[in-house]
Amino acid sequence: MRAKLSYAVTAAVLVFYFVLVGSRGVMLIESGTLVTVTFGVAVLILPVIGLWFLWKNTQFVRRANVLAAELDAEGGLPVDELKRTPGGRIDRDSADAVFAQRKAETEAAPDDWRSWFRLAVAYHDARDTPRARKAMQRAIALHDGRPVQQL
């Protein structure tokens, strides 16, 4: 629940910032000179890109949460069996061992979204966020029955 709240607060702050920046862009355009209109258009592009990025990330998180809820209902969520340091960080060797197991499971069942979901969690635990995101995108695509791009 804490993660959802912090995501919502961050999204609200970003939307406020985009509105603020957008209003400055409109003010620049209203000035009417070539330079201010050019800068105003450039300033308006930033909030559009930011809103698109925020929307895509929100959709990704929502879809991943749907998969997690479904997997939880089936009793298939990965169990946190990782060793941790005294400071609470995941032990690298432990994460690598679980990752090897998850990778083998995924190679054995490459069309199963559940194995890709668990692989994404293993990538995340191994601190490989880009691959974790790609594996989760593949799990979402397989779950939704969409064509899957290669990793």
The overall strand count is 0
Query: Measured on Cα atoms, how large is the radius of gyration?
Result: 21 Å
Mean pLDDT: 90
Number of helices: 5
Helix-strand pattern? HHHHH
For the termini, the CA-CA separation is: 31 Å
Low-confidence stretches: none
The helix fraction, in percent, is over 70%
Biggest beta sheet attributes: none
Structural class: mainly alpha
Amount of beta strand: under 5%
> Can you tell me the overall shape?
elongated
Identify the notable features of this structure and list them briefly.
151 residues, mainly alpha, 5 helices, 77% helix, 0% strand
Fold and architecture overview:
The chain is mainly alpha-helical and 151 residues long. The protein contains five helices and no strands. The longest helix is centred in the middle third of the chain and has 41 residues, at 34-74. It is elongated and about 65 Å long. The two termini are 31 Å apart. 18% of the residues are buried.
